[in-house]
């Protein structure tokens, strides 16, 4: 009987594996087609507001890519970014996202301070990445490069053959800012902080959500905010869903926040409307 149930477990396990391999292959195929199509349609880049904790005023946005399936449905990056990284298609995908982000930053330049773009380890390791960035900035001379922020995660440092620190220094010399994404979730956050010339830390949602009613989270946040400040970095808290958390972050001295409380990622047309409205609200 034991053997039999073991066999069942094994079968269930294999079933799940099979589904996930299938999904991966399907994601790869969809992505390949999307990249070959009209990317603006097939790979829409959406924007989520980054706001002042004090007033809710929109100061920036994070660009977050989506995929539009043939039936019109929207697929989140969790379903295809991993496949993009494994296959190297992230390089083309990332270029598309950067182009769209800069185009919209140009369009919104009078109403929006900056746009933050996620950059995967594989993209950063690519020798053509810095030249691409330099070309795109040169094509938009009206934009101060510091209005572009590149978000990188700790895994960019691990197992990379290129000298990531060196590469980040080069990027910073272009004037572009660097943010440490999902800060606090990795294995070596402090080493990371010591070695990487970053300008911004993004406090991960896992210790932001519900912080107002959790003394431990609150202590961690305060310590990280202090650390960031001492290092001359600014901080953005991710995943703010509740007013009580906004207040707690504001009291703790966290100036910038991002989360569903202020808006989910939205298509550029909708984001445009948001910043127009918020501008009308503050214009005398
Ligand atoms: P991330 O960079 O940490 O982005 C933040 C994620 O948290 C986004 O999910 C956003 O929708 C979600 N989020 C923001 N506020 C809240 C909140 O209040 N509550 C909850 N529950 N979630 C919130 P999304 O758009 O699904 O993106 C997931 C991840 O996919 C991103 O995490 C990033 O690592 C990756 N990604 C997205 N776009 C790109 C891209 O263009 N390039 C690369 N390399 N990765 C990307
Ligand atoms: Mg991010
Ligand atoms: Mg993040
Ligand atoms: Mg995150």
UniProtKB/TrEMBL annotation:
<feature type="domain" description="EAL">
    <location>
        <begin position="24"/>
        <end position="279"/>
    </location>
</feature>
<protein>
    <submittedName>
        <fullName>Uncharacterized protein</fullName>
    </submittedName>
</protein>
């Amino acid at each position: 009987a034991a053997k039999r149930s073991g066999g069942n477990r094994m079968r269930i396990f294999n079933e799940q594996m099979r589904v996930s391999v299938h999904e991966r292959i399907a994601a790869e195929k969809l992505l390949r087609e999307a990249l070959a199509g009209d990317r603006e349609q097939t790979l829409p880049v959406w924007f989520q507001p980054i706001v002042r904790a004090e007033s809710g005023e929109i100061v920036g946005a994070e660009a977050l890519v989506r995929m539009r399936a043939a039936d019109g449905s929207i697929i989140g990056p969790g379903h295809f970014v991993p496949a993009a990284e494994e296959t190297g298609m992230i390089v083309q995908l990332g270029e598309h996202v950067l182009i769209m982000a800069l185009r919209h930053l140009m369009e919104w330049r009078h109403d929006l301070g900056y746009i933050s773009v996620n950059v995967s380890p594989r993209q950063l390791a690519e020798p053509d990445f810095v030249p691409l960035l330099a070309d795109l900035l040169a094509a938009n001379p009206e934009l101060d490069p510091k209005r572009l922020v590149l978000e990188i995660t700790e895994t960019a440092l691990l197992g990379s053959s290129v000298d990531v620190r060196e590469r980040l220094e080069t990027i910073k010399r272009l004037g572009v800012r660097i943010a440490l994404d999902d800060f606090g979730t990795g294995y070596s956050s402090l080493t990371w902080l010591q070695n990487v010339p970053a300008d911004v830390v993004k406090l991960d949602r896992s210790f932001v959500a519900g912080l107002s009613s959790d003394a431990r989270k609150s202590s961690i946040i305060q310590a990280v905010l202090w650390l960031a400040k001492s290092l001359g970095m600014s901080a953005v808290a991710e995943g703010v869903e509740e007013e009580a958390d906004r207040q707690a972050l504001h009291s703790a001295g966290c100036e910038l926040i991002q989360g569903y409380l202020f808006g989910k990622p939205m298509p550029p047309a909708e984001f445009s409307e948001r910043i127009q409205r918020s501008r009308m609200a503050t214009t005398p």
